[in-house]
Please model this.
Amino acid sequence: MPTNITIKGIPDDVYNKLKQQAELHHRSVDSEVLVCITKAVQSNQPEPYSIIARARKLKEKAKGSLTMEQINEVIKH
Model:
């Protein structure tokens, strides 16, 4: 069953932007907010802690032979 929430204190400029986007997408402001929230929580971007853990595992596997450049490359992807 869906849950309702109330968001208080939305700055006018943010609300106006949401309203413009909602009109552009032929949605209500509530529907536009739901789409924005859904996109944010379903993002495919990995969590920072998982990136760091992956970099540490790779460094351990390489027994310290990875350069900072190689580690940074892993973090970027």
Remarks:
- The chain is about 65% helix and 0% strand.
- The chain has two domains: 12-41, 45-77.
